[in-house]
Design a protein that fits this description.
alpha+beta
Length: 277
């Protein structure tokens, strides 16, 4: 039984790895469909890809000074993920040390945010274990091998970008990071030029992080003063003061949408930081 289980785990791991690296010019999608069917999985069902990253935090964050090696608890981590993603059609496999991939079958009437809720359950359980933290990236639904490949790549991008943009969250849907994904695909030199030409004077200010957050909240709140102040947890008069300062420094009206969007993209580029790792 143990040998059979290990063979099944390795086959699922190989299947997920091949889907992640799928290239229609190299491998026929039907071949992966047949291999999945042999394992009892129907890749034509509506699924969404999820990528988990489990790490050991800084020594100062370890409770009792005892760290756990992620590689040594691999089976335990896989079991934790499978306890949540327990549908017989869910494909769960370790893809690398500290990384676990899931191709989750989406029930017909499941709420749109159900995968995110399931991911939070997983990260919360892992966080309760000594010395381990976990984050998750979520792709888009798909019903084909090519779509699952894209969904898994999106999940990995969401995981990587979410840590750089919103380090306080543990679950990152790609739908919230599409603009960041597009900017990350642009070269570092282009992002730097955008910042230099659009927000140079703003970046010289000692309160640049505050101004950057104000621009971001203004745009993401639909250019609505009340919603922007609520998002920033400050009085709307403070938002008005900051917006006036931004307009004085840039010489352009922040209430003009083209100006606001150019500054918004520059702020996102600044949050993304240096070259992609």
């Amino acid at each position: 039984m143990l040998r059979s289980r290990l063979l099944a785990e390795r086959a699922a791991e190989k299947l997920l790895t091949d889907i992640a690296a799928y290239d229609p010019l190299v491998v026929e999608g039907d071949l992966l469909l047949f291999r999945a069917a042999d394992l009892g999985f129907d890749l034509r069902l509506r699924r969404v890809a999820v990528a988990f990253e489990v790490t050991v935090p800084d020594p100062g964050a370890r409770r009792g000074g005892r760290a756990r090696d992620v590689a040594l608890v691999r089976s335990e981590l896989l079991r934790t993920v499978r306890d949540v993603f327990a549908d017989p059609q869910d494909i769960v496999a370790g893809t690398a040390p500290g990384w676990i991939g899931v191709l989750h079958r989406l029930p017909a009437r499941a709420p749109a945010d159900a995968p995110a809720a399931d991911c939070r359950r997983v990260t919360d359980v892992i966080a309760a274990q000594d010395g381990l933290t976990a984050r998750a990236g979520i792709g888009e639904p798909a019903t084909s091998v090519g779509g699952l490949h894209d969904s898994y790549q999106d999940a990995c991008d969401a995981l990587r970008l979410g840590a750089r943009v919103d380090g306080g969250s543990t679950v990152h849907p790609i739908g919230d990071l599409r603009v960041h994904q597009l900017l990350a695909a642009v070269s570092q030199s282009v992002r730097t030029r955008l910042l230099d030409l659009t927000a140079a004077r703003l970046r010289e200010q000692p309160d640049w992080p505050v101004l950057r957050d104000t621009i971001t909240a203004w745009c993401e709140s639909g250019f609505n003063l009340v919603r922007a102040s609520a998002a920033l947890h400050i009085h709307r008069n403070t938002v008005v003061y900051r917006m006036n300062k931004i307009e004085q420094l840039t010489g352009r009206p922040l209430r003009e949408h083209r100006t606001a969007m150019a500054l918004y993209l520059a702020c996102l580029a600044d949050r993304l930081g240096g070259p992609d790792r």
